[in-house]
Specification:
440 residues, alpha+beta, Uridine Diphospho-n-acetylenolpyruvylglucosamine Reductase, domain 3, Vanillyl-alcohol Oxidase, Chain A, domain 3, eight-stranded antiparallel sheet, six-stranded antiparallel sheet, globular, binds flavin-adenine dinucleotide
Amino acid sequence: MTAPDYPALESELIALLGARGATSDMRQREKASVDGARMSPIIAEQLPLGIADLVAFPTTAEQIAQVVGLAAKHGVAITPRGKGTGNYGQAIPMPGGLVLDMSRARTVYEVTEDTITADAGAPMTVLEQAAKAAGKQLWMYPSTVHSSLGGFLGGGSGGTGSIAHGSNDNGFVVALDVVTPESGGQLVHVEGDEVLGYVHNYGTAGIIARATVRVEPAQDWRALYASFDDFYGSLSVLRELGKLTPAPRLVSADTPHISAQLPPDDAIPADRSSLRMIADPAIVTEASAIIEAAGGRIEEVHEGAGVSAALSVLSYNHPIEWLQKSEPGVYFHVEVSGDALIDRIDEVHAVYPGGLLHAEAAYTTPIGMLAGIYESPEAVYAGMDKLRALGVGVHNPHQWNVDFRLAQTLELAAQTDPRGLLNPGKLNPDYAGSTKGAIG
Ligand SMILES: Cc1cc2nc3c(=O)[nH]c(=O)nc-3n(C[C@H](O)[C@H](O)[C@H](O)COP(=O)(O)OP(=O)(O)OC[C@H]3O[C@@H](n4cnc5c(N)ncnc54)[C@H](O)[C@@H]3O)c2cc1C
């Protein structure tokens, strides 16, 4: 096989997108070839896993399709990229090729009674603002609030709003315009169950150029900050708070040690277990009573436009990121789920030296991130087996393989991408190592 003609592709991309629309500049290529993978010490040891030969910056869904058409014509690998916050290396262009940076394709088209439609690069914060201007809110968005719509659908799972709506494959996606190497530079519109073929598989079956997702009537959220003497107190109310009606948008709990690593805030006392909740005003009194009856203390209740985002950026993987920032090189984490996180917390903590859980109320059972002191890959994997034996669901965030509906993705990708040009290295038929992540 002959090597791809990158200079020819670059010229064609510049003719299509303009002089600033494509580049082979080394700094831009390097920037486009990293994501949040450094969160994993196991992946960090393997970096750099790949570097783009070219980067393209389309500004519309139609241009995204045309760029894919040109790259496919040249037989060039294509790795889609949103904001690059994915944390397993899944946005890294492993064999090089073209990185399709979506960040300039950010048009929001319309907000209807129950949907919003936007190009793939639109940040989730921008979508939420557009929804709010129409009296709506997104069903959900990830704690990486600036990440892109396409990246959240292609690589994420859920977050703020997931207590009520579950993960992003649970009715959130109404329609997609996708492009594949076989679609000849054209957008293909899919709706209904067909959209699932393109959700959470890292663009390996098709690249999302435009998406329509669910909104609902806006709520006037409150941020409720509480604390307990210890983590047992926070955990004792997490499930009950998650079941209140109307459902909270988020309920997060941290150990005193993790609470102390969060950004300084009087509402998060450093020596106590912090419990934070995005709550509808209708449940604030009931939630406060539950917390106080369990020995907790209400620290502050905030209202205003920014409260939902303010607590979101302290949820899911973020407390672990703060822990890693304050003690660099010490901690790794695994993504975990299930009632055992609460019912068997001492055993869960004991699985890894220095074990510390960050917990979230979720759709069915609690989910969380279990941090531990990093020793070796073998110790990480052995711990995962111990967690499973305790009845804990485990997702391995130290690998980049598609692990959600793998068989269906392989079948679809065989038709849409028979040459394997889409995000190569991520779709491995033999991978059966874990289940879809609660998080990313
Ligand atoms: C601190 C931290 C906290 C996080 N919290 C959450 C959380 O609360 N919930 C959650 O779900 N995730 C979370 N994540 C993971 C990640 O931030 C989310 O998945 C995020 O939504 C990804 O969006 P992005 O725009 O950064 O995508 P990227 O990182 O750029 O891409 C993610 C994946 O999707 C693919 N992709 C990008 N754009 C497209 C497209 N248009 N079509 C098809 N595939 C595409 C990429 O190739 C890559 O495989 C977290 C990560 C970190 C580091």
